[in-house]
Model the fold of this input.
Amino acid sequence: MTSPSLKGPRWSREQIRAARLAPLVPLLQKRGLQLIQREAGNFTLPAYPGLIVKASYWRWPERNLAGNAIDFQVQVLGLSFHDAMRQITGT
Done:
């Protein structure tokens, strides 16, 4: 039998909306990922060739992927939605 606490908290729409808009650069720096600043506020990550980060948005044209801060945590870093939210919100 699964305890409700194992699933983690339910995230409010406001928390999810705020997490989607979270700036990616400080989150990625906190994880120890190297970022290289490019023109127009863009950053690249040597660990993920071709991936471009700007503000709370990222795109990876070679893999036909793009999204917000939550999507990055889930699609690129492989975290669950709950773990992604915990990383972004710091909880």
Summary: Residues 12-89 form a domain with the DNA Primase; Chain A fold (CATH 3.90.580.10).
